[in-house]
Amino acid sequence: MALIDDLLSAGDDIIASIDKALSTHEYSGLGTQLRRVVSDTTTTVVKSGVGAMADVVRSVKRNVPYRPPFFTKDVEKNLGKFEIGTGTAISIVSGALMCWGIFTKMIAGSVAGMITIGVVMGLIFLIGIGVILSGINKQKLVKSFYQYGAITGERSYVTIRELADKSDKKEDQVLSELKKMKMKGFLPTAVFDREQTTLMLTDDVYMEYARSVRMAQEQAVRDGQKAAKEAPRTEATKRSYYKIDESLPEDVKSILRDGNDYLNKIRDYNDMIPDTESMSDKLYTLEATVLSIFKKVQKQPETASDLRKFMSYYLPTTEKLVTSYVKLCNEDGSIENVKNAKVEIEDAMDVINDAYVKLLNQLFQDDAWDISSDISVMKTMMKQDALL
Fold this sequence. Notes:
By secondary structure, the protein is mainly alpha-helical. The protein has 3 domains: 2-64; 81-189; 250-377, no CATH class. It is 75% helix and 2% strand. It has 12 helices and 3 strands, in the order ααααβααββαααααα. It has helices at 2-24, 30-63, 81-108, 111-152, 160-167, 171-183, 203-230, 250-272, 278-299, 308-329, 336-363, 365-384; strands at 157-159, 191-192, 198-200. The chain has a 3-stranded antiparallel sheet with strand order 1-3-2. A hairpin with a 5-residue loop joins strand 2 and strand 3. Helix 1 runs antiparallel to helix 2 and helix 8 runs antiparallel to helix 9.
């Protein structure tokens, strides 16, 4: 009514403005005045319409009864009773007619008539029994539906085990009945989890479940990749950085085998460290230097004696530092202590790399001395022969 009154009032204002202009012959402000009246009326009508719509929505919400998630669908409690009654009537009538028909045909001495009536009425009787059993099963299912709904209450999910425990049934029976309820439309929004141990009744719960499953799968993949990296290499999967000559002395072969193991460890640890970390480049440098050291031993076995301290202390200590760094990479990088510890190990790795390079140079020092000696002898001979 308020909306209609606003429209009528606007019409009166427009007519009054036009009458005034006609009587005074003053039309200069008529257009502006009419536009103002129409604008004001439109605003009022829109506000009234929005308010009325909001009132309708609120009224609808108030009039829609709240339903717990389990009872999204209103299932008739008398479902199946009509079938029970109909089947009972069919069975009683067909049974009576069968008895009466057989009796009359027997008196008439018609064996064929007795058989025909017995078969036909017997089939009708069995149909009636089938209708009764169907109605009984529906009644049982409806009873279970309301029983499970009472157990679930206001919750949006429930476990099969809880329903079984509180209804004094086996879990397989509960699961079977719930599936039948879904097929018959009793639970239109219900979904089972992947293991069929939980019944989810709302889309929100299912979406949360799906998200958690996806996160668990992604985490499992990450854990598997991490485990594969951290798993110790077998002899079959180890990298062979160089070929060990079996004719070498046993102590030299042992050093070379240990060296190959350390090179594999350095590469494996490096694979666990993100390439964005500066430590990764330092480990590539370490790997190249250590490889050069052992290749030198392979070519000149006599230098193996110079690596006792390198093998017994320097390499094991380096491995401990690298292992600690890998563990720190799995910690929260924003923690100050973690950042400081990583920086200290990175600085230590620079010192270690420099030391290993010096060791490599020392191993090649004899070659340098031999070359210098050869050059000196050659110069002396050339001078004696007047070639210089």
